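User: I want to check something. If I give you two sequences, will you return the structure for each one separately, not as a complex?

Assistant: Yes, each is folded on its own. Here is the first sequence with its structure:
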Amino acid sequence: MIKINKIKSIVLLLLNLLLIISCGPKDKFEWNAGISAPKNYISGGPFVEYFYQGNGVAGTSANVGINPGWGMTSGGYTGGEIFKPVPDSISVSWRCGLDLIEYKVGAKLPREKMLELFKRGKEIKGKKENYNQIITGMAPGGNVTVWLSGSFGNEEITRIKAKRVGETDKDDPNSVTLWTSTGDEAKDILKYTYLHGIPYSVWEKGEKTYQYDIGFSSEENRDFYESVTAFSKDGSYIFLNENQFIIPYKDWLSNHIMDGVKEGKLPVHTVVQWISEDDKQWYKGEIVFPVDFQNTFESFYQKNKNVHIVYVMDKLNPSGNYTFGTIWLQGSTSKERIMKFRLAKLNNETRKYEISKYTFPKGFVVPKWEGRIPLQRPTDLEYWQEE
């Protein structure tokens, strides 16, 4: 009798375990909450909470300003269980770092769309990859975008318009703002926004993407390390196809560039570094693209295949404190010149650049400022401009 009771107990336990497994929530997934803001367009004190059937399931916040790049996540406090239901609504609040306007919104989310993506994942090279994060981005003008994210990239879910709930003065004694900070990051951001303005509509409508890539070439026969950091109008980082990044000069001359394009937004601003293999020669520059570059690109793009934006460096002048290069649009059979640029040389003794790192295109005009707080020309902004 005792053995029978033990067997019954074990069977009952197994049945209960199976019942728990089979009757457990079917729509729970392993995901984290992330927050985002455009590069150079700071969101202050962001707070996001996700809900399902009226109950909070996850959230994230930061007590500082963030600008990791549009669609990229920034560190902050996060909360929630490991396995969570897909949310059906969201609450978002933050303060725009440039306009110092406070925004807040609560909105429904397209849960069925999100649920399907979580279940299906994304096939990458024949293998299923899962979405593991819900990212909420906050941009000037009260613009909110929500993405599902995985190691392979982001899938836009929805855009939301937040309400203006308050504003603060730039000289508010209770907080340090971009306008009162003496830090280098704040100064660089104010320079960037002076040169590019605040493109409110790009976060409302979204930004176009194209199949292309960025390449680098040089007349120099020596080995150099090159890097191009590119930013799009909406404050996204543009990631390059590293396998096609270096283009031998002879291939650039003959338009012999191997296929290596991928989908991406167009740059409006790039930071270029060129460093010799022995680490003794450092060149750096910040390049503002022509305002009409998108029109030029689209015209070339319609007529050419395998399009690259190529930075081609001139031969060095060893005695100079700068060097020049040219940006080209290049396809499989033709190329078109965009602009010339200058890189400043680092003084190895002082560890400083003795001339400005900024390059403006020919005819460049600073865009009209549309922000709430008037912006003056930065006093330390010097530049070289193509004639």
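And separately, the second sequence with its own structure:
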Amino acid sequence: MLYEVRDPVHGFIVYDELERDLINSKPFQRLRRVKQLALTHMVYPGAVHTRFEHSLGVMEVASQLFDTMMQKGGHELLRALGIRREGERERLRRVLRLAALLHDVGHPPFSHAPEEGLLPGGHEAMSAKLIREAEIRAIIEDQHYRAGIRVEEDIIPVAVGVKHSNARLTAVHQFLSELITGVFGADRMDYLLRDSLHTGVKYGQFDLHRLIHTLTFVQDPKTQDPFVALEVGGVHAAEGLILARYFMFQQVYHHHVRRMYDQHLRQALRDLLPDGQWPLAPDEYVAWDDSRVEAAIFHEASAGGSRWASILANRLHFKLVFEAPEGDIQRYLDQHSDLSALLAERFGEEVYVDSQNRPLVRDRELNVRILGRQGLSSWVTESRIFGVLPPLAFLRVYADRRDDLIKDVRNALSRFVG
């Protein structure tokens, strides 16, 4: 039996009985109540989409990537992966789809924002725990045992990485994982298009189908393992994705109000959660979702039990007092530690300093290989985008909304930075 669901990004997404049973499981259904972009809807009201629909979208895009690879040389790819058995191609495709479907199942309420300091090991470790210990394993290995898929050996290494599994790293794990979380992986492709659609901005748009159909694979000269490469005709489509990420970070993910709400949410949860962090037992963890957190926040705010809960409930987030100019950002980042110490000593928790300085394109992403008419070349050689994109860098100072405090903070900043 096949089933289908209509998706605003990819049209109809088709899934089978095993996938349906996983979608109907309690850990996966919880994702309906976990927003993809935390409290971004406080800035962009349409950003109330969830990890549930994103996970379906990643499964769909990963399938398209796999099918494209097989069309371009399925026999060679299977041989490079060390696969000789008949019918293994369909099994690989199913493993990829299940791993893509489950890759985000361990996200806490409000996704990334409440992980820092609240979820030991991060959402990847919790995803592995839920796949291994909750009803998901029984669905895959018992209820659908004829599929011949094992959670520990097949799903977890591809969904969240071998470091969260007891399995040995194989070329199969590495290749399938790259199709989900790689430089041009399904996860990145889906969230950019989906976040752009729901926030109402155009920055996240790129040519998805052109990019998918210009991705291919080549073999490592030493190990003969296959890895994802890009045909030279897809360079501009790939640049479109890189630029989409850059502008989405600048305009949406790093929006100054959204970042302040993230901080207030973490502060409130340290007061509200038992022992100040998310429970690690699977049954207790899946009982938490956005609705439960919001109810706790409003209850604490009405009872006067948590200052941070009251700030969230009444939308009285700290105000942006100062933002370093982008053209001179490095000078301010060099003074970050001294500035933070000065403001903390004088104003305590009444002031918050938020900063970041990291490249948009990490070192591993520079290793993408381009397949041209003269053979392999590097991503850096074929594209000039990397040479002109600045890092994702900012330094901001926020303060509580009292006029006298804001004036004092500005005076302190003026004396420190001029």
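Because they were folded independently, the notes below concern the second chain alone. The CA atoms of residues 28 and 268 lie 26 Å apart. The chain has a mean pLDDT of 94.
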